[in-house]
Amino acid sequence: MRLLFFLSIFHYLNSCSSLSTQPVCKDFESSALLQLKQSLEIDVSASFDPFAYPTISSWNSGERNDCCSWDGVLCDRGTGYVIGLDLSSSQLYGSFNSSSSLFHLVYLQKLNLADNDFNYSQIPPSIRYLSNLTYLNLSMSAFSGQIPPEIFELSNLVSLDLSFNPLKLQNPGLKSVAENFTSLKLLHLRRVNLSSPVPHILANLPSLKSLDLSSCGLYGDIPISLKNLTQLTQFLVHNNQLTGQIPPWLGNLTQLTDIDLSDNKFHGSIPQSICRLPNLETVSLRGKYLSGRVELDSLLNKKKLTILLLSGFHLSFPINSTFNTSTPKLKILALNACNLTEFPIFLHSQQELKILSLANNKIQGQIPNWLFNMGKQTLFSLDLSHNFLTNFESFNHSPPILPWDNLLDLDLSSNKLQGSLPIPPPSIAQYNITNNKLTGEISPLFCNLSSIAVLDLSHNNLGGMLPKCLSNLSDLVVLNLQSNNFRGILPGIYMEQSRLKAIDVSYNQLEGQVPRSLSNCTMLEILLLGNNQLSDIFPSWLGKLPRLRVLSLQSNGFHSAIGKPESSLDFPKLQIIDVSFNNFIGKLPYEHFQSWTSMKVANLTFDEDNAYMVADTSTPSPYSIFVNDFSYTLEMTNKGIKTLYQKIQDHLVAIDLSSNKFDGEISEVIGNLKGLHLLNVSNNMLTGPIPSSLENLMELESLDLSQNRLSGEIPPQLLHLTFLEFFNASNNHLMGPIPQGQQFSTFGNDSYLGNTGLCGMPLTKKCKISKTLTQPPPNSKQGEGSNFPSKSDWVVIMMEYGSGLINGVVIGNNLTIKKLERFLKNFGRKQ
Ligand SMILES: *[C@@H]1O[C@H](CO)[C@@H](O)[C@H](O)[C@H]1NC(C)=O
Ligand SMILES: *[C@@H]1O[C@H](CO)[C@@H](O)[C@H](O)[C@H]1NC(C)=O
Ligand SMILES: *[C@@H]1O[C@H](CO)[C@@H](O)[C@H](O)[C@H]1NC(C)=O
Ligand SMILES: *[C@@H]1O[C@H](CO)[C@@H](O)[C@H](O)[C@H]1NC(C)=O
Ligand SMILES: *[C@@H]1O[C@H](CO)[C@@H](O)[C@H](O)[C@H]1NC(C)=O
Ligand SMILES: *[C@@H]1O[C@H](CO)[C@@H](O)[C@H](O)[C@H]1NC(C)=O
Ligand SMILES: *[C@@H]1O[C@H](CO)[C@@H](O)[C@H](O)[C@H]1NC(C)=O
Ligand SMILES: *[C@@H]1O[C@H](CO)[C@@H](O)[C@H](O)[C@H]1NC(C)=O
Ligand SMILES: *[C@@H]1O[C@H](CO)[C@@H](O)[C@H](O)[C@H]1NC(C)=O
Ligand SMILES: *[C@@H]1O[C@H](CO)[C@@H](O)[C@H](O)[C@H]1NC(C)=O
Ligand SMILES: *[C@@H]1O[C@H](CO)[C@@H](O)[C@H](O)[C@H]1NC(C)=O
Ligand SMILES: *[C@@H]1O[C@H](CO)[C@@H](O)[C@H](O)[C@H]1NC(C)=O
Predict the structure, then answer these.
(1) How far is CA 712 from CA 134, 667, 715, 752, in A?
(2) What was the pLDDT predicted at 648?
(3) Residues of the signal sequence (predicted)?
(4) Taking the mean position of all CA atoms in its chain, how far away is CA 760?
């Protein structure tokens, strides 16, 4: 999932630097400020702004203790009272409560604490004492919880910004804002949880100029009363659940410069009047249910237009391709799913583009030469995925070397690109060219891509040996080479401190052993080596990887007995293992079963926000962060059918040991793996009875025991498996009555074929003894009842290609990983 935030967070309150002349500040105020200083720590990672500095460091009680001269403090020239405090981006860390001395500064008119880290404090009710506040900015400063009702006593507020905090404003909610802050000019509550309709009474704010209610959980129609907000310049309601048509009266709000209605549930077409608004700078109108015609020519004659995001519209282009100086210099342009068949000619004039997305169109043929001049220095994200592009015009010689000097993110996936693999510039962080028709080898020039975090070359016809240096790319998080023709060995030098989370080299012709140096990849979560010609014993040393969740070795030449784990703590996070179609022999790996602790819990706790397994591939860079998740994919046999999981549900637990040469009995210890959803041991040489402990696998949905030498009866305890949807015991030596009822009434003949001794429904052979069990044995634990909803909704989740959202976050400069993590924790992962 990819997101775009365009944050304009670093507004400065420039009025707050002091030119102290006359009055000296009051003692009670300077001591309140010093107390405030005492109560907070300086932590460089507390602010995102690259120009942040610890404003309060210079405050002191020494000789020059006139607080009016302190950095960030503004006093009234007449009275000497502190009327302004700007501690934005001051690297402050610490908690706030109602006893904070901040609330002694009762003459404050402007308070800016934006971009600090207040440790998820609540906004203290004492905020009410600052009753002369006109300007309050607490954005991006890690305040949390319900916004206290006392804030509504600040009836002089003109500007209120609480954006980017995990705050709630419910009961009282937005309505109270409109009732009590009637002088508001700016109201920014982006990402504050409102969960309400837009109240009519918002029209009560006749002076409102800037309204940002993006990602607030708003729903319902936009009330028509808002057409009274004639001063509005910014109307930003991105990412809510708003419904109805786009209100045509928006076209009458002639002051509007920025409109963002994207990612709501609006339907219908865009009123042309909106496109004709004279002062537009930002226009974002993407939505699943929007359609119709948009007059691009009327938008493109607005000189100040810098951001234009449209999807799913039929675009009418300027008739003539000559562009004069009045063509706007766009910074961000996305025209997605608009059935474009060629590159829009007006791109010729776009020298300052930073982000361009033309994904999900029908652009055919070559990528023309002239495109390389577009944003040569500025472009950092280019998404041309899901078109019909065939090659790069300019490169007669291969491989094509792409020219954009500052490109971070390049997505050329799902086209028809032929020839050699294009080489991105060294600045690249995310490169996705999956699903094309590229041939040839990976150029050694790839070794220069020292910042690359995501490399997805899967589903092409690339071949040759993998360059050794690939494993030196120390920032790599995702390496996907699936479904190519790579030969030779998997290169074996993986550095310590590798960031790799996902490696998929399945469906190639790789040989040799699993490189031992993979044990350096301590972040690794998914390792897919299937469908190659690897020849090795079971790599039990991978058990040391503390985060490994998915391991697939299927269809290779792995051999010998699996043996014991090196320690009982091995594979602590393993959820899915597939070793099918190899040459393993000996007993099933019972000792390993004991150590696979993640499989033993029936309800693995998982993060609700991340119901699928994803690698967070977000990368900070000098210019931006790209927030991006890579959904793990996996091909596995489920319910007897080879299934491609485009996404893997976060708590899926599966073991596939099928098609090897395992022998011996199935031990009762298998019943300990209570989290199992899929168990496949078919096509081995297993003997003995089906263990009745299988009844403990309450989550089991698919059980394949077919093609072994199992004997005895099918234990009636299996009737307890109320989620079982697939059961195959065919081609064994089973005998006796088939359990009747529950899920077993849904299995057909095929489940039992090739067992001469079985009898009872659905087979035609009747049992001699009429004792066919229809109830589970009474001494067993109580079943859950068969009216449970089927949980099989994870079976195959088809990929949503979406409408080609732009990937990335543009958020100032120079972010450290630590700051990125805080950012993602607060804002990034929710959608
Ligand atoms: C931050 O919050 C945590 C949890 O409430 C608390 O334990 C810790 O002391 C706080 N840190 C500071 C510096 O206030
Ligand atoms: C408020 O925070 C200060 C430290 O900043 C602490 O000493 C005081 O006990 C806290 N008061 C309450 C009521 O939590
Ligand atoms: C608030 O401002 C008014 C005038 O605008 C002034 O009379 C009053 O004293 C101020 N109150 C405080 C607490 O500063
Ligand atoms: C907010 O406004 C309402 C209606 O105007 C009023 O009843 C209420 O007292 C105000 N709340 C505060 C805290 O001032
Ligand atoms: C909007 O303005 C019109 C006229 O200017 C007025 O009659 C109407 O009451 C206003 N609506 C609201 C909800 O304020
Ligand atoms: C918008 O303005 C036009 C012209 O001033 C007027 O005819 C139209 O009724 C207005 N639309 C709305 C919805 O107020
Ligand atoms: C694009 O073409 C498809 C198929 O021809 C059509 O269904 C769709 O409505 C078109 N979309 C636009 C935005 O014109
Ligand atoms: C477009 O430009 C061509 C030549 O560049 C000219 O012949 C034609 O008349 C122009 N069409 C319009 C509608 O301006
Ligand atoms: C892990 O990486 C270091 C160098 O970073 C290397 O010396 C070591 O041999 C690697 N470990 C394995 C098992 O290859
Ligand atoms: C499993 O679910 C039960 C009840 O819902 C709960 O009590 C238990 O803590 C959960 N166990 C785990 C490991 O999540
Ligand atoms: C590459 O793009 C495809 C869609 O075209 C997507 O499914 C895949 O997850 C992307 N790969 C990475 C590593 O993000
Ligand atoms: C990023 O920060 C480092 C020091 O922390 C500084 O040297 C570098 O110039 C900064 N880069 C940008 C683009 O601000």
Answers:
(1) 82, 14, 9, 13
(2) 78
(3) 1-18
(4) 51
Number of domains in the chain: 1
Residue 694 lies in a domain: yes
In ligand 9, the atom with minimum distance to the C-alpha of 517 is: 14
Weakest mean pLDDT among 44-48, 472-476, 627-631, 785-789: 785-789
Pairing of strands 576-578, 654-656: parallel
Query: How far apart, in whole angstroms, are the C-alpha atoms of residue 43 and residue 39?
Result: 13
Residue with tokens 């077993």: 744
Provide the domain limits for residue 646.
536-605+612-618+625-830
Ligand 1: residue whose CA is nearest its atom 11? 94
Residue located via tokens 């003997």: 687
Test site for ligand 12: of 814, 817, 820, most ligand atoms within 8 A of the Cβ? 814
CATH code for the domain of 631? 3.80.10.10
DSSP string, 445-498: GGGG-TT--EEE--SS--EEEPPGGGGG-TT--EEE--SSEEEEEPP----TT-
Contact 534, 513 (CB under 8 A): yes
Q: Identify the nearest ligand to the CA of 248 by its number.
A: 6
> Does residue 333 sit in helix, strand or coil?
strand
Report CA(106)–ligand 2 centroid distance (Å).
20
Ligand minimally distant from the alpha carbon of residue 699: 10
Q: What DSSP element (H or E) covers 272?
A: helix 272-275
Highest mean pLDDT among 99-108, 496-505, 764-773: 99-108
Per-residue pLDDT tens digits for 537-591: 999 999 999 999 999 999 999 999 998 888 888 999 999 999 999 999 999 999 8
Q: Give the residue-averaged pLDDT of 720-749.
A: 88
Tell me the C-alpha distance between 771 and 286, whole Å.
Answer: 64
- Whether 419 and 412 have beta carbons less than 8 Å apart is answered as no
Q: Mean pLDDT of all residues in the chain? A: 83
Length of the chain: 831
Q: Is 728 exposed, middle or buried, given 0-12, 13-18 or 19+ CB atoms closer than 10 A?
A: buried
* Structural contact between residues 527 and 553, judged by C-beta atoms closer than 8 angstroms: no
Structure tokens at 254: 């002639």
What is the C-alpha R_g of the chain?
Answer: 32
- Residue 676 counted as domain residue: yes
By the 10 Å C-beta count (0-12 exposed, 13-18 middle, 19+ buried), 661 is classed as middle
Residue 480 beta carbon below 6 angstroms from any ligand 11 atom: yes
Pick from 51-65, 393-407, 484-498, 809-823: least confident: 809-823
Apex 102 CA angle, 99 and 104, nearest 5: 80
418 occurs within a structural domain = no
CA–CA gap between residue 242 and residue 821 (Å, rounded): 30
| DSSP codes, 628-656 | BEEE--EEEEETTEEEEESS-BTT--EEE
CA of 548 to the centre of ligand 9 (A): 18
The reply to whether ligand 5 has any atom less than 6 angstroms from the CB of 203 is yes
What's the pTM value of the predicted model, to 2 decimals? 0.82
Host H or E run for residue 817: helix 817-823
Here the tokens at position 527 are 């390792």
* Cβ count near 590 (within 10 Å): 16
Could you give the 3-state DSSP secondary structure of residue 142?
coil
- In a domain? residue 777: yes
Candidate from 119-128, 178-187, 593-602, 681-690 with smallest mean pLDDT: 593-602
